[in-house]
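Hi R.,

Here's the chain you asked about this morning:
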Amino acid sequence: MLKLILIAGAGGFLGTVSRFFASRYLHYLFLTSFPIGTFIVNIIGCLLIGIFFGISEKGNVMSSEWRMFLTVGFCGGFTTFSAFAFENLALLRDGDFFYFALYSALSVFLGLTATFLGQQFILKTF
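And the predicted structure, written out as tokens:
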């Protein structure tokens, strides 16, 4: 059990650091009140978790430790629902109802779509 906790924790650390840098870079690149950094990071994270679960479903390609590291750890640290919720509240507080609706709807739709496409790509390609 301790081994799995350390594996997930190591993946979570790397995912969190990756999210920090990617989100900062995207906010720097696109100067907008739309929370583009969290949005893009969350969609990429959904695509990645779909790919990782697709790989893990292909048999003995990925060990359970690697699956834990990549899905629970890395993707769990890379994506962030709490930032998504906070940014939506900030958009509502600022009266930016269009960006609130756009951010919420696109995040859910594209997140589910990216997860599905990532998984299907692996299952059908390999």
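The helical segments are 2-29, 36-56, 64-78, 81-93, 97-125.

Let me know if you need anything else.
M.
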